[in-house]
Amino acid sequence: MRLGSPAGLLSRSPPKLKNLRYRHRTRGLPFSHAEFIAFNSPFTLDDLVSQLRFTPAAVAADVKVAFRRFLTYRPINEFEFFFESIGLPPSSSPAAASYRDIFLSDEARLLASVSALVHFGFPWTKLGLLYREEPSEDSGVLRSRFQEGNWGIFVIVDEAVIAENLKYLTKLGMEEQKVGPFILGCHDLLGFDLENPSVAMPEYLNHGGLDKNEVTSLSQRYPYVMGKNKLGNLPGMMRAMDLHSWFVSRIWDGNYHYLSSSFVSAAPHDTAIESGFLQGLDRVKRLKKEQFVDNKLEFLLGIGFGENKITVRTFSLINSTKDQLQEHFDHLLEMGIE
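The chain above was modelled as a monomer; its predicted structure follows.
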């Protein structure tokens, strides 16, 4: 950068700080976001400053005034700065070229998704990987959207889903600060449905490679966990059997496909356990109000119980509401009882 050039003159009063103040104060971006963008987009900033023309006698103060006037009448295309800051090519990026808007604040979903990822330790300068690389075979819809040159994971997947999927990993037992770096190697997991697929015990454990003798032992020691449940309740089931550390290590070692709907659905389920549960549930609902039964069942499934006869007998004996049960359960956890 030549000292006599506009960019060189402006560098005497750090342009990155001006860029930061512009984004935070003028555009209303969170300070941390503005800082990441301003300090990781040097080429786009240099290109912007090079558009200013001055006489050889110009001093830094002249450049400051002209730069301020330039920003007043020519709003910055914030997406070019953003794309460079997350690791994509600056103005040559097809993403920046194809995007119609110029203000990041107009793309609330994008900012919310970025905030969720950064909160869990995903490196800002690596966010471009979520646009540039194609997800795996497990998510064909996501892959086709990437090929169309769209926003990929940022817009296809709702920001609330991204946040919940990140939290899900912490519920399994993964340390929060490790979630972001982990996602770097398997970012298609952000598009997984980690709530609704049905998972069946003990078949899921067999399918996941746990020793058959150990699975048999777990079935005998934790019969109340056996049967079907939602994948969203898998963290509770694993903790109930004291398998959460083992399971997280398996996921960390590259087996995150254990959480895909295709893997979960491939495991069979015990029809005898399911039949016994449904018959018992029907009897209880005929005797008690269905709403209260469903609420208590939801609570038990959430803490690791499966759909089986033991679960039916348990919630039929409970008189507390779901909220009261959750409060008591949380209190026990706070006391260190697991």
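Residues 1-14, 133-151 have pLDDT under 50 and may be disordered.
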